[in-house]
């Protein structure tokens, strides 16, 4: 036979498989994930055909069949690796499962499956994979890494079951190194219909300030530094576009993400939306079966408009990251939390996780809320801000203040402050008014929170202190009532700390500041020393 004829001979299935396998492995080693998936897919299809053909022969060759099954198993495992790098976790998991059906202790597939399950927060299933992998002879060269995974799974499984998180050491180290690894956690909360709007998150038992309510990882985040040129508007737009692309990509590739996003409000007919089961958010939740709702890009955009959160905001603190960073993200379970101007929760951002804790004591059945915008401002300003969010706030405080602020005297105090009247005289008038109108308990806290800027200035200025002295209430009285009504806030805590710094801190004040600190930072900062280091404010700025 001539050489050209030989070249034109079609390849036998064995030769073709050999060629495809060689090419796919090369692409995998070059980290060309997309291309390697394509070639592995051709190989897998051909290999499956061959297995079917050979096993239907009159006298199937068992050795050949075993060899083909082994090749198929390895190819599935390698395709899973490439798919997982492309964040197609659903596809990758399916490939691992198929490979493990062929060989239940296949080392590579077990490790790949364990890693995917870990990133899907299915800690105990991931632990099973790594424990089995450790027993394999191939583990000997990777024992340290595998044991690392085993320990990590154990730690995260424990955290997610008990809610025992502690950020103290990381805080005390000055946030050195990577942010700590955190599990997802669902505390004493459930989703129910809310009187505020649509669905909301509710406490299932009495909880005290600082108690951790949930920890959840972002579907996607985008961070960057905003330039001062155009007040960061261009950078913000680019970041928003990247963020949307990331969410769309995740929703396309992962069925669970797709399903989670489809439970969120897109702003329309919120009161008709169903309250999802909490089990959906618990770590270890099974993959969702058939999805009957289509999520197109427009729907995702609307969902992000309503639900995405900015990391650094009035009710949130970002730990361990440069404050110049602007970050936006989507945290699904936290998205069920409505806004209130008398909130009872705050957020801490650590890496891609958000930790939500009670900022004051909460009763069983009470709705969990945090502030979407600054609640230490008067009703008129808050109304403007809620308008930009596309809703009219219907919280208890707004309802209370709607009545109060219709009084002529209240209007005069607000206008007076805007025109720069002495803050002490405004506070004096407000306190006198509250006495005459018989405003009690939380009502007082609401009003003081509304005029917080005036109290802040008065307590920060020696001139005001000398002039108004005992005619305006003492700092601790105002701080207590504001914290009780609208939850602990960093600025309120700062005023408290500053007032007592000059006079030397007594034990009682220190106790009080630590309690306020727990409301602001949460009980996840367990060591007092760590909390103190967060409370050690040097300045008296707003
Ligand atoms: C992040 S979602 C909160 C969960 C939402 N209620 C749901 O059912 O999915 C934000 C949306 O909830 C509604 N909302 C939140 N707080 C509110 C409030 N205090 N008063 C009225 N509507 C509120 C607004 O429609 C807002 O766009």
The overall number of domains is: 3
User: Which percent range describes the beta-strand content?
Assistant: 5-15%
Low-confidence stretches: 538-542
CATH architecture of the largest domain: Beta Complex
Number of strands: 12
Give the SSE map.
Elements: H1 3-8, H2 13-29, H3 33-55, H4 62-85, H5 89-102, H6 107-119, H7 123-134, H8 143-162, H9 168-172, E1 185-186, E2 189-193, E3 199-203, E4 212-217, E5 220-225, H10 233-253, H11 255-262, H12 297-307, E6 309-310, E7 316-319, E8 325-330, E9 338-339, E10 345-350, E11 353-358, E12 367-370, H13 379-388, H14 396-404, H15 408-418, H16 423-436, H17 441-450, H18 452-460, H19 462-468, H20 475-486, H21 490-503, H22 507-521, H23 528-535
Parallel strand pairs: 7-10, 9-12
Antiparallel strand pairs: 1-4, 2-3, 3-12, 4-11, 5-8, 6-8, 10-11
The structure holds S-adenosylmethionine.
S-adenosylmethionine binds at residues 194, 196-200, 264-265, 267, 270, 273, 306-307, 335-336, 338-340, 390-391, 393-395.
Fold and architecture overview:
The protein is elongated. The chain has helices spanning 3-8, 13-29, 33-55, 62-85, 89-102, 107-119, 123-134, 143-162, 168-172, 233-253, 255-262, 297-307, 379-388, 396-404, 408-418, 423-436, 441-450, 452-460, 462-468, 475-486, 490-503, 507-521, 528-535; strands at residues 185-186, 189-193, 199-203, 212-217, 220-225, 309-310, 316-319, 325-330, 338-339, 345-350, 353-358, 367-370. The chain contains 23 helices and twelve strands. The strands form three sheets. The chain has a five-stranded mixed beta sheet with strand order 1-4-11-10-7. A four-stranded mixed beta sheet has the order 2-3-12-9, with no helix packed on it. Strands 5-8-6 form a three-stranded antiparallel beta sheet, covered by helices on one side. The protein folds into three domains: 12-162, Tetratricopeptide repeat domain (Serine Threonine Protein Phosphatase 5, Tetratricopeptide repeat, Alpha Horseshoe), CATH 1.25.40; 179-370, Beta Complex (Beta-clip-like); 379-535, no CATH class. The longest helix has 24 residues, at 62-85. The chain has 542 residues and is of the alpha+beta class. The structure holds S-adenosylmethionine. S-adenosylmethionine binds at residues 194, 196-200, 264-265, 267, 270, 273, 306-307, 335-336, 338-340, 390-391, 393-395. InterPro entries: Gramillin-biosynth_MTr, SET_dom, TPR_rpt.
